[in-house]
Design brief:
The complex is a heterotrimer.
Chain A lengths: L6 H9 L10 H12 L7 H8 L3 H10 L11 E6 L2 H5 L2 H12 L12 E6 L11 E3 L2 E3 L7 H6 L3
Parallel strand pairs in A: 1-2
Antiparallel strand pairs in A: 1-3, 3-4
Chain B lengths: L3 E6 L2 H6 L1 H8 L5 E6 L11 E3 L6 E3 L7 H6 L4 E2 L4 H4 L17 H6 L4 H7 L3 H11 L11 H10 L6 E6 L8 H8 L1 H15 L3 E6 L4 H16 L4 E2 L2 E2 L2 E5 L11 H8 L23 E5 H13 L1 H5 L9 E8 L5 E6 L4 H9 L8 E6 L6 E2 L10 H6 L8 E6 L4 H15 L5 H4 L1 H13 L5 H17 L3 H5 L1 H10 L1 H5 L5
Parallel strand pairs in B: 1-2, 6-7, 6-11, 7-10, 12-16
Antiparallel strand pairs in B: 1-3, 3-4, 4-5, 8-9, 12-13, 14-15, 14-16
Helix pairs in contact in B: 6-10, 6-13, 7-8, 7-10, 9-10, 9-11, 10-13, 17-19, 17-22, 19-20
Chain C lengths: L3 E6 L2 E6 L4 H7 L25 E2 L18 E3 L3 H16 L9 H9 L17 E2 L5 E4 L8 H10 L4 E4 L6 E4 L10 H4 L7 H5 L5 E3 H6 L4 E6 L8 E7 L2 E7 L12 H5 L14 E4 L2 E4 L2 H19 L4 E5 L5 H15 L4 E3 L6 H10 L17 E5 L3 H4 L1 H12 L4 E4 L5 H5 L2 E3 L6 H14 L5 H7 E2 L1 H8 L4 H8 L3 H13 L3 E5 L1 H4 L4 H14 L10 E3 L6 H6 L6 E2 L3 E2 L3 H11 L11 H9 L5 E5 L3 H4 L3 H10 L2 E6 L4 H4 L3 E4 L8 E4 L4 E5 L12 H11 L9 H11 L17 E2 L23 E2 L18 E6 L16 H4 L5 E3 L1 H6 L7 E5 L4 E8 L7 E5 L27 E8 L22
Parallel strand pairs in C: 1-4, 15-16, 15-25, 17-18, 17-21, 18-19, 20-31, 21-22, 25-26, 26-27, 32-36, 33-35
Antiparallel strand pairs in C: 1-2, 3-4, 5-6, 6-9, 7-8, 10-11, 11-12, 13-14, 13-27, 23-24, 28-29, 29-30, 32-37, 33-36, 34-35, 34-37
Helix pairs in contact in C: 9-28, 10-28, 10-29, 11-21, 15-18, 15-19, 15-21, 18-19, 24-26
The chains are: A alpha+beta, B alpha/beta, C alpha/beta.
The complex binds ligand MGD (2 copies), flavin mononucleotide, iron/sulfur cluster (SF4) (5 copies), FE2/S2 (inorganic) cluster (2 copies) and molybdenum atom (MO).
């Protein structure tokens, strides 16, 4: 347990200490940890709580609330498929199916080789160029099921 | 060799449509000077390349990298002013979109930016609020609350500190105008915040930007830096810091609700607070706080610059100014539309959407995001106006319009929307926390062919309970799309019942 | 809140308080609206939606518990629409509950009341089966929960511990302790920072959180109102009874000092009354063998021995130590016995070792020695200063109240060498070197004087001798003070400014001030600061000692002091003497008696022969135990009256069992001078008499009959003899608020705020004192400073708390040592360390803690096996003889666990050490 904290995280938590009298911001620290590690290991909760002068319950409550704070490492590439209504109307479900069959995983899963994680998102503000698929932050519009193979190959 | 100046939108959706690929292809060319602008919002034409001409800008739509010689030669471009989708609009908030570079303060100024704030600086806080009152501006985030009333409460509530918060959570699927403002005209949002801050006496501002909008957050940060360097972010020697909080909602839809947003901004669970007190009395850290939508803030500068009466002169009795609509789904011409309130939904779909995508027939239109009611073809003559929508048990919301075609399974769509609410429920109040799950379960029973009429009437009764008893709009609005689907497409439900 | 708002609820005119919610207004008017999630102790929340109402002129059906009253408002709470909504919401609540017939009673009742006979949802998903039984006192069962978050809010808003959270979202959201959702859900409470205050359990509307005792024995069928018998806060409780035994202790909402809150000890630490080893019969010791004897034989023996000693050696060979744990009536009677029957003033009580320095210090400056203000003043203060006290552990309900004030934004100054919980939260923490209070407080005074922050008007009209004080603080510059105390000069300046200028600065202090070589001086300098800044005699201000035991205030008030009669009346007052003679038929001895430490000297010198101790374990809790034990051994006859075979009882010749607070009637006086009733809830063990009856029996046997039918008659006698209690009587103590002394007349409503217009002596008296060093300072041989004090879980000698399930939470005294010191000494968490002082040694398991500074160690004294007090010296405050418990020098040595002898009965299971820090 004690030996778990990587040094970088330790440093981050020291820097994240709220100033004397300032209220802590747990979510902000969780975001910082997420950015650093790609996920938040629950074993870091005590250290995060300590750095914020908050309790473990406070941290756990926040961590459990926000869907995009992962508590497990994701794959090397993050595929986000929009399931918002505009994309739905434009048949995003078929795109999802195409990705699922290509990678052999369901929504929310990571390929066994750790290459891809497939996540649903709800609207990336690209509704006029829907359906949208974001891979590692790069957004593709008007994606058709037939585009999927080519798209994914770019990330192999 | 002289370089030809080409304009290409840098908006996320334009890029997703291919603009970024063009830019990559042309970046190294010595004969091209590429200017990355905001987007005009005619996304069905993107990627669209423009260049200056004696007729104003000419546009090459659906451009590919291979079109470059043609463009450089000036062949085949059409005058932007001849594009009906754009020419029929009344652009005020979005007037400079597609024209200016988002992060150029000079361009912002050149096209009339800052005028509102300059005026506001010479006005007393109460005069500013009076001007907003005259404008009859109502909030664009969904609740359509008169803006001046909130400002007045915040201005007159005594406190050691006050805040303004731009709600840039834009959670409704089918909406993207806030994103466009942040990416394409960030100074307008900043100017709106500054005017509000002056009116209520706020000492700091926050822009709560959803995680799905990384580009918007980056643009805002750059714009704030530029504004600060230009000395904007202080008045009478008092600094006015604006912080972009990006991704705070971390994927939670309800964090767009203003009190949940404040909880989340304070770093806690994004659970809705009971009102009163309203944020304008007791918001961020218990201090008076104005939470308003990005578009609301972006509408303010023009009102100050041109006068409240100017704004009030547009639109319908209850809905003044322009409506910013975002068309999506199975229409032929999806994109951003700014028109005075009062056009009917059908007119919008016909005049701007130009009907359905090829081969598709219209089945239903959802207005106002995932909590918005569904309209059938027969109901499209409703005027775009907050009150008319309210009377029809519908919402205009943030102006998202999604068109579904004849292939849509309305039962599955209903289930999808209710599942969305069940997933996104903050879990605080019983009608939504349990009710949304029960509603989803009933719809799944119908899908499995195991439901009876009793289940459907239970669903209706549950819907009424959620509407009346939920704490916030998520639970209270959740039944509307489902019940309107049940009402308009009863056969699709009843066909699947247990015989 | 005197603003009234006229409105109509369900057709009835209702006068509501401005700021009320409709829910609260209706309740006050006797119209209850159904609702599970709202509580008068918690901020409006609005989650269950059962309390929906209709407001005329408004759309929709808002929750009445989040809707504020408005003048002229018309509200309906029982329309057909609302009934339907309530039924449907109830149906939703029931739909997530198990269908196996284990529906919580509250939900069952709700269903009945709204006319719901069955749930229409088919095969609904139900709540996750999660059970957390890791807390020794209560369990959490998620299946009975409705996710109303009252428990979480109670922990945040009432207790301020934040041990709970809601976890997850949507349907799955549920309460959770600690971070257990990410680990072992069954150990949440145990591994969280929960302090077992029970607030969450009390707030839970469904019994998802429920006391183990209720699980085992069922809900109580009747209740008896009484007062907690642990600390000086004096929390009001309802003892819940079933089949003649106590099954719950629930803090009462109308309790004046606790408003429905409590701490672990009062709430769950009462089961010692049913401990197997309760003393049930008198025991006589001959040599090392004990023999149970009859009450008659015991009482005769006592009377006979004391008569013998008195005739043989005179009254001065006898003394008594009364129990600050007992009632006022018992204490008075014991004093009466010693004065009227023995004819001496050799009587003392535990206040000697506790706040005696407060008594001398406040007497000399203010002329009265009790809290000047009331607990409620914490809500009016604009600054709170905590000096040498650790209320979140020692007076938890007050600690929670201070945390609430802090969360409202009230600045907090903490003066304490240790980083206590409040010190961590504090706006300013002044971590002084132990034993340097006088220097620091004078340093604060210096800044106030220098910067013109004094309240001249107050000083001129209400005080005298300010020059004496000004002269004393003159040389105490912040830089000089920093040198002595180790507190940075900047912090000293800022603290002085804030205290002097907040408008209403309230000070509470504890043993960190009194239990020092110069404890009385510390108290005087503290009072000086309040006088100099006018922070006295006004709401939200004052000097407020956090008196320790449940009735340590009362024991002194009713005269168990060698130097004062009841109400601090001087023994040599002729008028009092006359009254005493008239009322008791015996003269009042005028010669000052011996203080407890004097008694030890007298015993060692062979002058003291007989000693009667009620409820005070001197053989464990007094300092310099080698000496105390020796003194006790020298006595001809030692009688000890206790609930248990305490360390002192083990040395007695005769041991008498006593009745516990739940088994008798009487009154306690809490730390805000509030006299409150305790009431008999259950019978004592067969044959056991309350202490006062034992005193009566012995007195009667010694020729001075005492016959009171009820403690109320004793109180009447106290009132007769004592001007400040003149208006006190049992019928006036019947309302929940009790009475705060002085109560000079029967029509007087008591005194919440003292010294409003004048001080007892007219003007208050500044006393300037110079800093003097503590009794000892670290040397090469003894390099550490040992501070002793309390932990939340255990109480003083531990006789009571060690006989409850609290033992599962903490089972040892532990040595808190700074991690760097520990590393230097090669001590790891859980290792055993030997502490050596010039007086003795003790062995303790180590806990690494940043609560202590480098060079300091801290431990508690709750376990006899630790022998902590053997380390301490007999050094004490000059004026009050309050021992210097808070400072002794020690050496810390690592100890090889295997070096412990096999016969060593110490149970030093370091694994059990879990300090809530
Ligand atoms: N849980 C629990 N509660 C109790 C008791 C108990 O045993 N357990 N006992 C009760 C009794 S009898 C009493 S008297 C009260 C006592 O209650 P408190 O007065 O709170 O008692 P302590 O914890 O002994 O000491 C208080 C603080 O004094 C600090 N201190 C030590 N030296 C100095 C110094 O030189 N200057 C200053 N400013 N501070 C110093 C210590 O660090 C400690 O935090 O608690 C009562 N309540
Ligand atoms: N090292 C160190 N030592 C300290 C202190 C310190 O800070 N450090 N603090 C000192 C202080 S402030 C105090 S007050 C003392 C307290 O020390 P003690 O007074 O010795 O301890 P208590 O646990 O309060 O109670 C003593 C006994 O009273 C018994 N008792 C309880 N109720 C009744 C009753 O109704 N009738 C009878 N007959 N007996 C009853 C209990 O069983 C227990 O054995 O400890 C002092 N000792
Ligand atoms: C479930 C829910 C989600 C919401 N999401 C948003 C949002 O994403 N953006 C927004 O501006 N307002 C949103 N709102 C509305 C806000 O609560 C609030 O009314 C609005 O930010 C006020 O700004 P305005 O006065 O400019 O409209 C949401 C409301 C609810 C009930
Ligand atoms: S409801 Fe109808 S009449 Fe009223 S403002 Fe809207 S469009 Fe005009
Ligand atoms: S309606 Fe849903 S989202 Fe809104 S407060 Fe209730 S549970 Fe939370
Ligand atoms: S017992 Fe007290 S401290 Fe523990 S969780 Fe409940 S409220 Fe919090
Ligand atoms: S345990 Fe009790 S108080 Fe806590 S959420 Fe569940 S029902 Fe409410
Ligand atoms: S705070 Fe004191 S009086 Fe109140 S319950 Fe705890 S020990 Fe008893
Ligand atoms: S609905 Fe998919 S991007 Fe908006
Ligand atoms: S009591 Fe009002 S919502 Fe629960
Ligand atoms: Mo004490």
């Amino acid at each position: 347990m004690e030996t778990f904290l990587p040094n970088a995280l330790d440093d981050l938590l020291i820097r994240a200490r709220p100033a004397q009298g300032a209220p802590p911001n747990i979510l902000r620290v969780l975001h910082a940890v997420h950015d650093l590690c790609g996920y938040i290991d629950p074993r870091a909760i005590p250290a995060i709580a300590h750095s914020q002068g908050a309790t473990e319950a406070n941290v756990a409550g926040v961590l459990s609330y926000y869907p995009s704070l992962n508590t497990q490492p994701a794959g090397r590439h993050r595929i986000q498929v929009c399931l918002g209504e505009s994309c739905l109307a434009n048949r995003c479900v078929r795109v999802v199916e195409a990705i699922q069959s290509k990678l052999g995983i369901e929504l929310g899963q990571t390929t066994p080789d750790g290459q891809f994680t497939l996540e649903p998102v709800s609207c990336v503000g690209n509704c006029a160029v829907s359906p949208g698929v974001r891979i590692d932050g790069e957004l593709n519009g008007r994606v058709r099921p037939s585009d999927v193979a080519g798209l994914l190959d770019r990330y192999r | 060799m002289s370089r030809v100046r080409l304009y290409l939108s840098n908006d996320t959706s334009s890029c997703a449509a291919g603009a970024e690929r063009l830019a990559e292809a042309w970046r190294q060319r010595s004969d091209v000077e590429l200017v990355r602008t905001s987007s005009r919002g005619a996304f069905f034409l993107e990627p669209m390349v423009e260049r200056d001409s004696s007729d104003g800008r000419l546009a090459w739509c659906h451009a590919t990298a291979d079109d470059l010689p043609k463009i450089l030669a000036g062949d085949g471009g059409i005058p932007v002013s001849s594009i009906p989708f754009l020419s029929k609009q009344t652009r005020h908030a979005f007037a400079t979109f597609g024209v200016t570079e988002p992060l150029s303060l000079e361009a912002y100024r050149a096209y009339g930016g800052c005028a509102g704030f300059r005026k506001a600086r010479q006005m007393s806080p109460s005069a500013i609020i009076e001007e907003i009152k005259t404008s009859r501006l109502r909030g664009r985030g969904g609740a359509a609350f008169p803006v001046w009333k909130k400002w007045e409460v915040a201005a007159t509530t005594a406190a050691d500190r006050k805040y303004v918060v731009a709600n840039a959570d834009e959670g409704d699927a089918g909406t993207y105008c806030d994103r466009m403002v942040m990416e394409g005209d960030p100074f307008r949002l900043i100017e709106g915040l500054l005017i509000c801050a002056r009116a209520i006496g706020a000492e700091a501002g926050y822009i709560y930007c959803r995680q799905e909008y990384p580009v918007a957050a980056a643009c805002l940060r750059a714009a704030i830096r530029a504004a600060s360097e230009a000395g904007w972010l202080e008045s009478d020697g008092q600094p006015f810091p604006i912080e972009v909080v990006s991704g705070a909602g971390a994927g939670s839809y309800v964090c767009g609700e203003e009190t949940a947003l404040l909880e989340s901004l304070e770093g806690r669970r994004g659970v809705v607070r009971a009102r009163p007190p309203h944020p304008a009395q007791s918001g961020l850290y218990g201090r008076p706080t104005i939470v308003s939508n990005v578009l609301t803030f972006a509408t303010i500068p023009n009102i100050l610059a041109r006068g409240g009466a100017w704004h009030a002169s547009m639109g319908t009795e209850g809905s003044r100014g322009t409506a910013v609509l975002q068309l999506g789904g199975r229409v032929k011409q999806p994109g951003l539309i700014e028109v005075p309130f009062g056009l009917t939904l059908r007119q919008v779909l016909d005049q701007f959407g130009q009907g359905m995508a090829d081969g598709a027939r219209l089945k239903a239109v959802q207005v106002g995001g995932p909590l918005g009611s569904l309209f059938t073809d027969a109901q499209l003559d409703i005027p775009i106006c907050f009150d008319a929508f309210a009377k029809a048990d519908a919402i205009l919301g943030h102006g998202g319009i999604v068109v579904f075609d004849n292939e849509t399974d309305m039962l599955e769509l209903s289930r999808h929307l209710m599942a969305f609410v069940a997933d996104e429920s903050c879990g605080k109040c019983v009608p939504c926390r349990i009710g949304s799950l029960r509603a989803r379960e009933i719809l799944e029973t119908v899908q499995r062919g195991q439901a009876t009429e009793a289940d459907l009437s239970l669903l209706t009764e549950l819907g009424d309970t959620m509407k009346a008893a939920s704490l916030c709009g998520l639970g209270a609005r959740a039944p509307y799309p489902v019940l309107s689907a049940l009402e308009h497409f009863p056969v699709e439900f009843r066909n699947r019942m247990r015989s | 809140m005197s603003d009234h708002v006229a409105m109509t609820i369900d057709g009835r005119p209702v006068s509501a308080h401005a700021g009320d919610t409709v829910f609260a207004a209706a309740k006050r008017a006797g119209l209850t609206i159904p609702g599970f999630c709202s509580s008068e102790h918690l901020a409006p929340f609005g989650s269950c939606r059962l309390c929906v109402c209709e407001v005329e002129g408004q759309k929709g059906t808002p929750a009445s518990c989040t809707t504020l009253v408005q003048a002229g408002m018309t509200v309906r709470t029982r329309t057909e629409q609302l009934a339907r909504l309530r039924r449907n919401v109830t149906e939703l609540l029931l739909s997530e509950q198990p269908t196996d017939g284990t529906l919580p009673a509250a939900l069952q009742e709700l269903a009945q009341s709204v006319g719901l006979d069955h749930v229409r949802y088919r095969q609904p998903e139900v709540r996750a089966h999660i059970r957390d039984s890791s807390n020794p006192f209560f369990i959490f069962d998620n299946t009975s929960c409705i996710s109303c978050a009252r428990c979480v809010r109670a922990c945040d808003e009432i207790q301020g511990t934040f041990a709970l959270t809601m976890v997850g979202r949507g349907f799955g959201s549920r309460p959770m302790a600690g971070a257990s959702g990410y680990g072992e859900t069954a150990t949440g409470f145990a591994t969280s920072n929960c302090v077992s205050c029970g607030a969450c359990v009390k707030e839970c509307p469904t019994g998802a959180l429920i006391e183990n005792t209720v699980q085992e024995h069922g809900h109580p069928t009747e209740t008896v109102r009484t007062t907690c018998a642990y600390c000086g806060v004096g929390c009001t409780f309802d003892a819940g009874l079933r089949d003649g035994t106590v099954v719950t202790m629930v803090p009462a909402d109308d309790g004046p000092s606790n408003h429905g809150h409590a701490c672990m000890k009062g709430r769950f630490g009462w089961t010692y009354i049913y401990a197997e080893d309760r003393l049930k019969q008198p025991m006589l010791r001959t040599g090392s063998t004990w023999q149970a004897i009859s009450w008659d034989a015991a009482l005769d023996r006592l009377a006979c021995e004391f008569t013998r000693i008195k005739t043989e050696f005179g009254p001065d060979a006898l003394a008594a130590i009364s129990s600050s744990r007992g009632t006022n009536e018992e204490n008075y009677l014991f004093g009466k016995f010693i004065r009227c029957v023995m004819g001496t003033n050799h009587i003392d009580n535990c206040a000697r070792v506790c706040h005696s320095a407060t008594v001398t210090g406040m007497m000399e400056t203010l002329g009265a020695s009790a809290a000047t203000n009331s607990i409620q003043d914490l809500d009016h203060a604009t600054l709170i200063m905590v000096v040498g006290a650790n209320p979140t552990e020692s007076h938890p309900v007050i600690g929670a109240r201070i945390k609430q004030a802090h969360r409202r934004g009230v600045p907090l100054i903490v003066i304490d060498p240790r980083k206590t919980e409040l010190a961590r939260l504090a706006t300013l923490h002044l971590p002084l070197k132990p034993g340097t209070n006088v220097a620091l407080l004078n340093g604060l005074g210096h800044v106030m004087a220098k910067e013109g922050l004094l309240d001249r008007a107050f000083i001129d009209t209400r005080t005298e001798a300010v020059d004496d004080w000004l002269k004393a603080v003159e040389p105490c510059t912040p830089e000089w003070t920093e040198q002595i105390t180790g507190v940075p000069a900047g912090l000293i300046r800022e603290a002085a400014r804030r205290y002097a200028t907040s408008g209403a600065s309230l000070c509470v202090h504890g043993l960190g001030v009194t239990e020092h070589r110069w404890g009385s001086h510390g108290v005087m300098t503290l009072v000086d600061l309040a006088l100099a800044t006018g922070n006295l005699g006004k709401p939200g201000t004052g000097i407020n000692p956090l008196r320790g035991q449940n009735n340590v205030q009362g024991a002194s008030d009713v005269g168990c002091l060698p130097t004062f009669f009841t109400g601090y009346q001087p023994l040599n007052d002729p008028a009092l003497g006359g009254l005493h003679q008239a009322v008791t038929g015996r003269p009042l001895p005028t010669k000052r008696g011996m203080k407890t430490p004097d008694m030890w000297d007298a015993a060692l010198a062979g002058q003291l022969k007989g000693l009667w101790i009620i409820g005070y374990d001197v053989a464990q809790t007094d300092p310099n135990l080698t000496k105390v034990h020796e003194a006790l051994r020298r006595l001809d006859f030692l009688v000890v009256q206790d609930l248990f075979m305490s360390e002192t009882a083990k040395m007695a010749h005769l041991v008498l069992p006593g009745a516990a607070f739940l088994e008798k009637d009487g009154t306690f006086t809490n730390l805000e001078r509030r006299i409150q009733r305790i009431r008999k809830a259950v019978d004592p063990p067969q044959g056991v008499l309350p202490d006062w009856q034992v005193v009566c029996e012995v007195s009667t046997r010694m020729g001075y009959p005492m016959s009171y039918r009820h403690p109320s008659e004793i109180m009447d006698e106290i009132a007769q003899l004592t001007p400040m209690f003149a208006g006190v009587s049992y019928d006036r103590l019947e309302p929940p608020n009790g009475l705060q002394w002085p109560v000079p007349a029967s029509g007087h409503e008591g005194t919440t705020l003292m010294h409003r217009d004048r001080f007892p002596k007219g003007k208050a008296h500044f006393v300037g004192v110079d800093y003097l060093p503590p009794g000892e300072s670290p040397t090469d041989e003894y390099p550490f400073t040992l501070i002793t004090g309390r932990i939340l879980q255990h109480y003083n000698c531990g006789a009571q708390t060690r006989r409850t399930d609290i033992l599962d939470v903490v089972g040892v005294d532990a040595l808190e040592i700074h991690p760097e010191d520990a590393a230097r000494l090669r001590l790891a968490e859980g290792d055993l360390a030997r502490l050596v002082s010039p007086r003795g040694h003790a062995i303790l398991p180590v806990v690494l803690s940043e609560r202590v500074q480098l060079g300091q160690v801290f431990t508690s004294f709750h376990f006899p096996a630790s022998d902590v007090n053997a380390l301490l010296s007999s050094s004490s405050d000059d004026q009050s003889r309050c021992p210097e418990y808070k400072l002794s020098v020690v050496r810390v040595e690592p100890l090889d666990g295997t070096a412990l002898g096999a016969g060593d009965e110490r149970e030093l299971e370091a694994g059990q050490v879990r300090l809530i820090t």
